[in-house]
Amino acid sequence: MREKSKLAEKAARAIGLLGGGVIGGGWAARFILNGIDVRLYDPAPNAVESVQKVLANARRAFRKLTMVPLPPEGALTVVESVADAVRGVDLVQESAPERLELKQQLLAAASRAAAPGTLICSSTSGFRPSLLQSEMEGPACFLVAHPFQPVYMLPLVELCAGERTVPEALERAAAIYRAIGMHPLVVRKEVDGFIANRLQDAISREALWLVHDDLATLEEIDDAVRYSWALRRAAIGSYRMADGGAGMRQGIEQWAFRWPWSRLTDKPEMDSAFLDKVAAQADALAKADPLPVPLEHKRDDLLVALLQGLRSEAYGPGETLARWEQQLRDRAPLPAQDSEPLRTLRKIPSNWIDANGHAAESAYLQLCSDATGSLGRYIRENGADLENGGAYYTVETHLTHLGELHAGDRVEVLTQVLGADDKRLHLFHVIKRDGDDEPAAMGEQMLVHVDAKTRRSAPVKGPVRERLLQLARSHAQLPRPDTAGASIQMR
To answer: What CATH number is given to the structural domain containing 178?
Structure first.
């Protein structure tokens, strides 16, 4: 029997969602697309339609964001009361409008109805958690979990405990949010606005001063931000390039809080004339640089591109994306027995398409590589310890193209082990569009086991060797592909 994965131990089974607006809908989408059931309470008449719209946008974005198959979607259940929403769930996420009394009432009702120990979190963007938990009967498991719009795309969630929150609640919540591809950031002390919003407000204040003093328009400010330090900060943050303490000290002494670089805490008067001016500039900006409708699609596509670029460097938010994808791989279903070819499911993303409108050759290589990764996971999940001091490297690949694959196609890769010995592994992949009888391509590969220290070929040892040989014997009973061995052979 397979061991229960670490992800399964951390992931929530069901979530109670209080509020289905823009933020609540984003939470619903992120949880549901990670295979978690959502129980939604929102008395607004259009709440379900709003959540379904956000969910549709998230599905579209996730298809572009990751090539890893998502788990079966969680169920969305609409309930009639707070008590129904919080019953039998692992975590409650409150996302009501930013009105203190409303939030306090909802959270108090949730704490009365939820089972002891249930995590209750608020999406508030500004209220301190001690203020929110003041009316709760069971405040020990309450904390703020502040996300950013769109919740299903941006990975940061700020966690902040109140005066009566136990530390264990923060740890449990962080594990749940990590399991759905987020980056939990614990706010050390309660503070109005938390961290990211305070930074965002400071930038907004300076931007409005520039507009107020007729030094720049909204369009010019947007360009100044998105073509300069916003890219650098998105990639590496603000202070990792400070060159340590000496560089940080020099930067503060030279630049910090020195006029005319900053207006400090002054803010321009928000009179009607100023509001008319910024509104006119916003209209001009929308006309000069129109975005395709719906705007959410373009926004999500730009975020996908940025996150995938950072993932290629395994850094910052890209590392969070890569970790979530590995968790998804670990949850994907595996063959029930050795006598079957290993089945890997993928969906062809738009960035795999070449100028001719179909999948590029590199896409087929990636499909073969993904299928080989599934083989390694299958070996590990079936009792073999892969920590054997080495890894398999591909030394030869032969592709046979028989058809075309296009963006959005669901693809299955059926992998057969044709042979294995102490050093070599011979694989054959059949690549088929889901539902087609004939393959779109076939790939044959030879891999060699390499010692991690010497970086030279070396015999595979222990349970990995035994499992591979066992799998090769079982797959030898399958029909051998007609073209196998024509170009690659174990000699």
So the answer is: 3.40.50.720
